[in-house]
Amino acid sequence: MTAQLAPPVPTTSDVPAPTRLWTPSRVLVTRSAAERPHGQRILARLEAAGVPDVELLPGDRLPNLRGDGDRAAFMAAKDTLAVVVPPPSKRRLQPIPPSADWRVDLAEGCPAHCQYCYLAGSLSGPPITRVFADLDEVLTGLDGYVGRGAVTSGTLGRGGEGTTFEASCYTDPLAIEHLTGGLAAAVTHFGTHDWPGPVQLRATTKFDDVAGLLDLPHGRRTRLRFSVNASSVDRRFEGATAKVPGRIAALAAVAAAGYPVGLTIAPIMPVEGWREEYGALLDAVAAALPDGADLTVECITHRFTPGSKETLLDWYPRTKLDMDEARRTPKRGKYGSVKHVYPRETMAELRDWFEAALAERLPQARLLYWT
Question: Collapsing DSSP states into helix, strand and coil, what is residue 163?
Fold first, then answer.
């Protein structure tokens, strides 16, 4: 299966300058990670970026990063990057509906400060960002998963996407790309590898440093999606991210470079004036996208679990995020888990509006799912 050629990339003047680049205050690199080729590439990038505190550990165990549980300990963990080699079990991929057939983790954790962060209920331990140095082995092991998925591969609704691999389930890969180069390596592999069937790499981000991705041989096998929201949600709850206008400019740049692109509108919240704010968001996207862009949309409403609420209130004790269970409906999973979602009437009102607004403002877009 031969890769498709990417179209000419945008000129330098068309590429938006990144509005935020993260520099960790501390980096820990395990011995096995430093021995891996990808780990060595990360070390070179850290040196080039001038990261001041890079510690090469004598073994593969990270030091105790839990601290004493106070705010300072949380901030220190949040500002720490660890380069590690995960256990071999991590290479056994898991399905990740409704997004993709398989989850491929380039990293776990994120340097952003989103006060609704879903990682609060998904990852345990201190909120450091762990980058996995076994990327080369992971990428070479993906062939065996092609054609075996149940979310997109072989389905009527999304079969045209091929076998899909989600790279942003537990991280924001673009947030750390300037330090790791992992997303570029994955994009290049997907674009140039001789696969046994149709494939697609998927990644979503709240950042905008896309210049290093534009001239890659992506072969249109990577869909870059940008997580966007109403202006008041972005302003109040999405700390240490690129702001939404920067994300939209980045979306337009990668679309002009021939990538399939997407909007992840999440988490949707019925804030005051939500119709006007989300309408302005969709209008801004429509104005920025080049003609003929291959655009998908994923709509995800805000929800939380009892565990994630407890963690988020510990992380962000002054948050104004609405997590009042009395204003929600419990949704139970098959293993007894509970999520608090918006009531049926609110969900129906939101969904009806978004489906109509997308059809009117972005008629070329394909809505993949609503949840």
Answer: strand
**What is the DSSP-derived secondary structure letter of residue 9?**
P
Helix axes 244-256, 274-288, angle to 10 degrees: 30
Structural contact between residues 255 and 16, judged by C-beta atoms closer than 8 angstroms: no
Task: Provide the 10 A C-beta neighbour count for residue 52.
Answer: 11
Integer Cα distance of 91 and 149 in angstroms? 16
- What angle (nearest 5°) sits at the alpha carbon of residue 184, between those of residues 45 and 198? 160
Three-state secondary structure call for residue 243 = coil
Encode the chain (371 residues) as per-residue pLDDT tens digits.
Answer: 444 444 444 444 466 677 779 999 999 999 999 999 999 999 999 999 999 999 999 999 999 876 556 778 889 999 999 999 999 888 899 999 999 999 999 999 999 999 999 899 888 888 999 999 999 999 999 999 999 999 999 999 999 999 999 999 999 999 999 999 999 999 999 999 999 999 999 999 999 999 999 999 999 999 999 999 999 999 999 999 999 999 999 999 999 999 999 999 999 999 999 999 999 999 999 999 999 999 999 999 999 999 999 999 999 999 999 999 999 999 998 778 899 999 999 999 999 999 999 999 999 999 999 99
Residue 223 DSSP one-character state: E
Instruction: Please report the beta strands in the chain, taking only residues with DSSP state E, as ranges in sequence order.
Output: 26-29, 54-56, 80-84, 94-96, 100-103, 107-108, 113-114, 129-132, 163-166, 199-205, 222-228, 238-239, 261-268, 295-301, 329-332, 338-341, 366-370
Q: Which candidate, 229, 33, 222, 58, places its Cα nearest to that of 132? A: 33
pTM of the model: 0.94
Query: Which neighbouring-strand residues pair with 205?
Result: 226
